[in-house]
Amino acid sequence: MAVAAALVVAPVSSTDLPSGFAAITSKIPNPWSAFRNLTGCHFGEQQQGVAKVKDYLSHFGYLPQSSSGFTDLFDADLEEAIKVYQRNFGLNISGVMDAPTVAQMMAPRCGVADVINGTSTMGGASSHVHGRNLYTYFPGSPTWPRSRKSLRYFITQTAATTIDRATLSLVFERAFARWSAATTLNFTEAASAKDADITIGFYAGDHGDGEAFDGPLGTLAHAFSPTDGRFHLDAAEAWVATGDVSRASSDVAVDLESVAVHEIGHLLGLGHSSEPGAIMYPTITSRTRKVDLASDDVVGIQSLYGGNPNFKGVAPPATSSRDMDSGAGASSRPWSALVAVVAVAAGLVVAL
């Protein structure tokens, strides 16, 4: 079971940041903001904060856990872990904490690891040039039994959120429907937790599953692989369940449905994808809506459960910067420009 070169640009606000990256200006800190101080750090250096990078990479599976604690020495193991991370996210594979890598690490993301038991659950973005799909599964490819076409879910923990239960029900109903539209599965809200296959709740900090939440714009949520059925959201996030999240008053607003669609993918057996436009890409920026399955998501889920003969195909990619998510920008702007804008917002320098 797995848990689940500086460019001259106009000032960048959180709503203008390219998708897939955090709102990482000084006004919007997150648990990984200090990584910007390590820009350019490389093998052989000893610098305060390197241990925190090791903690980060260990949490997401790129390094084994350390029983004695990590040191601030940039060693060979860290260099190799960063190379794997860079490969997964389509970055230049340098093993150095360059500005694009720092910017990517500072992005809010799903808490499910990218590497589980030494196996990457991301396809490696370099594979895409060969026409390969980038969806992945958890080790062992766990799924719900083929005989189970109907799954029930229940919202169990709502005390830590101000969103009313009726609104939550509507959000999760829409999120599940996006997956049922493409597959042979269907989902209904159960009357109680004991009747449910999937349980959903909002939690703060350490909540007993070994995957403590870390506050706004860090780890947003996590879900477990089949057939565990647990789906947890960080109650500390400024969740938006109604209206246009891009116009939210809070710069740290996170679209609830967007995160829910991603985590449901994990509940059904999908791992992370290296395809930036996919729902199963690990990161999403604040004030961004991303709810439509991409081709990569559809092929992946249909390979597990079969396809719905009534499925009308995927929606065209978004073109508005406010609607773009972690991948839409990749098709509308050169990757170097994406990184440069993010880096400028973070006070970093990118060598292009």
From TrEMBL:
InterPro entries per record:
M10A_MMP, MetalloPept_cat_dom_sf, Pept_M10_metallopeptidase, Pept_M10A, Peptidase_Metallo, Peptidoglycan-bd-like, PGBD-like_sf
Annotated residues that bind Ca(2+) 2 are located at D197
GO molecular function annotation: metalloendopeptidase activity; zinc ion binding
* Gene3D superfamilies xref list: Collagenase (Catalytic Domain)
Q: Where is this motif: Cysteine switch?
A: 108-115
What GO terms describe the biological role, i.e. biological process, of this protein? collagen catabolic process; extracellular matrix organization; proteolysis
Q: Which family does it belong to?
A: Belongs to the peptidase M10A family. Matrix metalloproteinases (MMPs) subfamily.
Name of a matching Pfam family: PG_binding_1
Cofactor(s) essential for the protein: Ca(2+); Zn(2+)
List where this protein forms a coiled coil.
Answer: none
Keywords of the record: Calcium, Glycoprotein, Hydrolase, Metal-binding, Metalloprotease, Protease, Signal, Zinc, Zymogen
Glycoprotein listed as a keyword? yes
What does the entry list as the binding residues for Ca(2+) 3?
Answer: D214, G215, D234, E237
Its GO CC terms are: extracellular matrix
Binding-site residues, Zn(2+) 1 = H207, D209, H222, H232
Q: Where is the active site?
A: E263
Record flagged with keyword Signal: yes
Where in this chain does the record put each Peptidase metallopeptidase domain? 140-307
Instruction: Give the top-rank taxon of the lineage listed in the UniProt record for this protein.
Output: Eukaryota
Q: What CDD domains would the database entry show?
A: ZnMc_MMP (cd04278)
Cited SUPFAM superfamilies:
Metalloproteases ('zincins'), catalytic domain (SSF55486), PGBD-like (SSF47090)
Q: Where does Zn(2+) 2 bind?
A: C110, H262, H266, H272, M280
Cite the binding residues for Ca(2+) 1: E237
User: What name goes with this protein?
Assistant: Metalloendoproteinase 2-MMP
Cofactor binding summary note: Can bind about 5 Ca(2+) ions per subunit.
